[in-house]
Amino acid sequence: RRAPLFLSHGAPSLILEDVPARTFLEGLFAGAAARPRAVVVASAHWLTREPAVDASRAPRTIHDFSGFPAELSR
Fold it and tell me: What is the mean pLDDT of residues 47-70?
């Protein structure tokens, strides 16, 4: 049994920046013997009256990148 791993996604602009957090995330599973069997995402960016669970493979998302670099909108 493998231990759970918690990761924060960081700022949306993380993918555009050359910073240690990005380097760490890029190499996190490099050379791993096995891929994760499941991924659980908890988000505060989901508007519901009560806590909810979405178990779909491709949940619908709404992206608002106003105030961030134009690359993120593309």
Answer: 80
